[in-house]
Amino acid sequence: MLWLSKHPKWQQARIVDVSTRSFGLNSPAVAIRGDEDEDYDGRKLCYLPSFARTYSLWYQRHYLSVTRTESQDGIYHMKEVLQIDILARDHKVLNNLLLEAKHAYHAAEEHLISIYVSETSGNWRHVTSRPKRPLKSIVLDPGMKDLLLDDARDFLQSKEWYSERGIPFRRGYLLYGAPGSGKTSMIHSLAGELGLDVYIVSLSRMGLDDTSLSALISELPERCIALMEDIDAAFHHGLTRDLEEENNVSDGSSEEKGHEKEKEKAAISSPLSRITLSGLLNALDGVGAQEGRILYATTNRYTALDPALCRPGRMDLHVEFKLSSRYQARELFKCFYLPSGGSDDKDNREDATKRKTSVSDSADASSSSTPSESDADVTSEKLAQSFVGHKHRSQGPQLSRKQAEVLADRFADLIPERELSMASLQGYLMSYKVRPVEAVENVSAWVEKERAERAKKNKRPSNS
């Protein structure tokens, strides 16, 4: 909120209720590191005005004073006020100052996305700024990333098209599927690609009811991403994040299924939830619903959602995120171990030679683009020997592109189709960051262990 005095010579601006204490200065592009200090511990230095003190300076030949104060707004919320006084004859100087500050803030946030959450007071609070995640780091089945990105870009460029046809300028996406399949990571990456901030709407937040939810949605900026994670949990508090038996275990009795449906219906009217289905629907596409925003909702229980919530106009595009395929396993392995920078095999072999690694001469001299099985075995054996004793990536040898592709193919062949989540595969590869050969050799035992643990977990409800 900005206040300006009407005096012609003394222009005053008061920036009320600042959303972040650092005023955008916590960005790595702005914060002072102190590179001359060899013992730099990574903590950033930021300059902020002290409370209850007035600072005087000159800006474009005009006298300027800055005062930062803090007061209590309500019981739990503190309000910060930054008051700027400029001695000038018109608002032009003040406008130039605010525009310059705005450009500096956007420059600091150029490679970051801002995350906002709702407070109990009903206001949006800036909690953090996260680096943009490259879209290439998300491993999905072919076509899924292009579908979501192209559709969102087309929506943001179609405001006039919606207006001419009298259609509310809103777009909703429902991402559903197995836990750990990349739904939230994809939203994070899309926010960076589209240059939009993320506003997290927690439907299970204490004190949130239909009225406050509608007010939160209506106060969203025109261009942003509204994120509702686990949207089914707002009405089904007893549900778990684990995959249900419908994906892994069949032959369930009809009586048990009917009993589960009764429990789900009872959970909708549970006093633990102050959000009603009608209140959520009105907030999404009611008269006071904000336009221009993109809504992403995630759920692990697609069939548990009410059909009214899933209809077009509220959730326009439904995208299923399945458990990992062999294609995803192969691409994830390449993402971990493929040489960066797009270097070819020749450059990689020269780098490997400089680091005195043991690479097969036959594999280096081979002109074929697809290595034979014997070449793959020799390469793996030599690499296994060269990786002994290396614990960190900077100490270990670098794989050539051909070697990484050979190991990726072998790794994918050992991964069962649609049984493991991408999160579990990533966790497994994280334990072999500089040991790709061991990751391939031990993956079969790890898969059997995961199957045994999943079978044990699925048996627990039947014994209770």
From TrEMBL:
<feature type="region of interest" description="Disordered">
    <location>
        <begin position="344"/>
        <end position="380"/>
    </location>
</feature>
<keyword id="KW-0999">Mitochondrion inner membrane</keyword>
<keyword id="KW-0496">Mitochondrion</keyword>
<feature type="domain" description="AAA+ ATPase">
    <location>
        <begin position="169"/>
        <end position="325"/>
    </location>
</feature>
<keyword id="KW-0472">Membrane</keyword>
<dbReference type="InterPro" id="IPR050747">
    <property type="entry name" value="Mitochondrial_chaperone_BCS1"/>
</dbReference>
<comment type="similarity">
    <text>Belongs to the AAA ATPase family. BCS1 subfamily.</text>
</comment>
<keyword id="KW-0812">Transmembrane</keyword>
<dbReference type="Pfam" id="PF25426">
    <property type="entry name" value="AAA_lid_BCS1"/>
</dbReference>
<feature type="compositionally biased region" description="Basic and acidic residues">
    <location>
        <begin position="254"/>
        <end position="266"/>
    </location>
</feature>
<dbReference type="InterPro" id="IPR057495">
    <property type="entry name" value="AAA_lid_BCS1"/>
</dbReference>
<dbReference type="GO" id="GO:0016887">
    <property type="term" value="F:ATP hydrolysis activity"/>
</dbReference>
<dbReference type="GO" id="GO:0005524">
    <property type="term" value="F:ATP binding"/>
</dbReference>
<dbReference type="Pfam" id="PF08740">
    <property type="entry name" value="BCS1_N"/>
</dbReference>
<protein>
    <recommendedName>
        <fullName>P-loop containing nucleoside triphosphate hydrolase protein</fullName>
    </recommendedName>
</protein>
<dbReference type="InterPro" id="IPR003593">
    <property type="entry name" value="AAA+_ATPase"/>
</dbReference>
<dbReference type="InterPro" id="IPR003959">
    <property type="entry name" value="ATPase_AAA_core"/>
</dbReference>
<keyword id="KW-0067">ATP-binding</keyword>
<feature type="compositionally biased region" description="Basic and acidic residues">
    <location>
        <begin position="344"/>
        <end position="354"/>
    </location>
</feature>
<dbReference type="Pfam" id="PF00004">
    <property type="entry name" value="AAA"/>
</dbReference>
<feature type="domain" description="BCS1 N-terminal">
    <location>
        <begin position="1"/>
        <end position="138"/>
    </location>
</feature>
<keyword id="KW-0378">Hydrolase</keyword>
<feature type="region of interest" description="Disordered">
    <location>
        <begin position="244"/>
        <end position="268"/>
    </location>
</feature>
<feature type="compositionally biased region" description="Low complexity">
    <location>
        <begin position="359"/>
        <end position="373"/>
    </location>
</feature>
<dbReference type="InterPro" id="IPR014851">
    <property type="entry name" value="BCS1_N"/>
</dbReference>
<keyword id="KW-0547">Nucleotide-binding</keyword>
<keyword id="KW-1133">Transmembrane helix</keyword>
<dbReference type="GO" id="GO:0005743">
    <property type="term" value="C:mitochondrial inner membrane"/>
</dbReference>
<dbReference type="InterPro" id="IPR027417">
    <property type="entry name" value="P-loop_NTPase"/>
</dbReference>
